[in-house]
Amino acid sequence: MGKRTSMIHLNPMIEFADQQCKAQGTRLTPKRKLLLKGLIQANKALSAYELIDYCKTHFNESIPAMSAYRILEFLEHNQLVHKLHLANKYIVCAHMSCNHSHGVSQFLICKQCALVKEISLQQPLLDELAHTAKAAGFDQINQQLEIASLCNLCEQPKTI
Q1: Alpha carbon distance 32, 40 (integer Å)
Q2: Measured between alpha carbons, how far is 94 from 117 in angstroms, rounded to an integer?
Q3: Strand blocks (E) in the chain
Q4: Of the four, 37, 52, 151, 158, which is 20 to 30 A from 73 by CA?
Q5: Are residues 86 and 137 part of one domain?
Q6: Does 69 lie in the same domain as 7?
Q7: 18 & 45 share domain
Q8: CATH number for the domain including 138?
Q9: Mean pLDDT of the chain, nearest integer
Q10: What share of the chain is helix, strand, coil (3-state, %, to 5)?
């Protein structure tokens, strides 16, 4: 995919994120836009340090680690990115620019190639999970699920 093609998809996402922040009374500053743009262009989950390296390599911009973590926290709080806790990485919300509501995000993470797919589970299943946790003596504080998986490409037998 050339630069022109990726910019066609990138600009509306950044514009939507900018408008969403304004609607919430916050700002998508140039550094925040830069990190968000890096996650969008990378098209995969990245750790904070991987994202810092990505921005240095692709945008020739240096971002201190503490700033990157604060920015990622801001982007997560504003529902523009998700933190994958098991992998300690961040990924752009697949539904960031949709104008309709979505369920609780669930993530299928390929353990071989690190591909991440964001899906939504039906409310009855989420209720059952909460009920099961309660029966085991736990109260759910977060419904996000991260499921280690193999994507279809990685589980196909390799032919030589």
Answers
A1: 12
A2: 8
A3: 81-84, 89-92, 105-110, 116-120, 145-149
A4: 151
A5: no
A6: yes
A7: yes
A8: 3.30.1490.190
A9: 86
A10: 50, 15, 35
Looking at the structure, do residues 51 and 86 belong to the same domain, yes or no? yes
pLDDT tens per residue, range 4-16: 334 445 688 899 9
Question: Which pTM was predicted?
Answer: 0.77
The answer to whether 78 and 24 are in contact (CB under 8 A) is: yes
Kindly state whether residues 2 and 25 are assigned to the same domain: yes
- pLDDT tens digits for range 133-159: 999 999 988 888 888 899 999 988 766
**What is the rounded average pLDDT of the residues 91-118?**
79
Rg, the chain, Cα only: 17
| Structure confidence by residue, pLDDT tens digits, 26-72 | 999 999 999 999 999 998 899 999 999 999 999 999 999 999 999 99
